[in-house]
Design goal:
By secondary structure, the chain is α/β, with parallel strands linked by helices. It is built from six helices and eight strands; from the N terminus they run βββαβααβααβαββ. The chain has helices at residues 88-92, 115-121, 132-140, 171-178, 183-204, 226-239, and strands at 9-14, 17-21, 27-31, 100-109, 148-151, 211-220, 244-245, 249-250. Strands 4, 5, 6, 7 and 8 form a five-stranded parallel β-sheet that branches. Strands 1-2-3 form a three-stranded antiparallel β-sheet, with no helix packed on it. The radius of gyration is 29 Å and the shape is elongated.
Amino acid sequence: KAKQHQNVIVLEVRDDWTKVECYQSYQGWIPSQLLSKEEAKTPPPPPSRPAPKPASRSVKPLEKPVSPRKHEDSPPLPPEVTTLPIGQAEADSDPGASLRKEFQAVTFGLETLDSFLFDKCAGQGSFIQVDDKELGEAVKRRNYDADVILDARMFPDPDAQYLTQHSGMHYLIITRLCEHRNFPSWLRNAKTQFAKAYQRRRSELGKDEQTLKMTVAVYCRAGKHRSVAGAKILEHILSTEGFQILETAHLSYKRWGANMCKGSC
């Protein structure tokens, strides 16, 4: 810290502030008006290094405007979680550009949805392969018609034992899923399937219909961690694509257990 009547070395001047170096090579900024050209009683300290030159950097303009995050308390998502190719340009160029687009996510577990899937899994819900047609029929038994069915079992996380009492709505579970090595390929598959389903539903829409609802079912073994986190990520993406997000249907909610936070913490 510079003392009154002490010699200092001026390193840089910016407007009304001056960067100086004083005794024992301490550096800092002080108002320029505090400096005087009068000689001090003590000799100045030897310079420890030359004054740094300001680096010149060229700032490249952004090609696209950056949208602010919608939820300030949500964890930032990786670059892959930005857009979903759903034929937005084609839809907006139609006379029906005022079409209301709705999205609903449905989550469930292979071992916790109903007795049919439970018996089929036979305790192998983490590995067994079930045809999408059978899964669609299982979801339909709960009065939901899924346009896309996504498997979220590809995110094993053996180091997440301390999060087992939280549902997939917990921000740390969502973050760990986004940072998983399998997440980019999972999201690419989700984009591809959603784009095809959206175009199909768009072409089947009647002239007088003003609402297009897309339903995506995401499943894992128990239906409370990976499937729930995957659904929250899809809701985040599609909310930026102009979709109205409907309440998520967690079909295995009653099997989450009494000690689960269920998104309340």
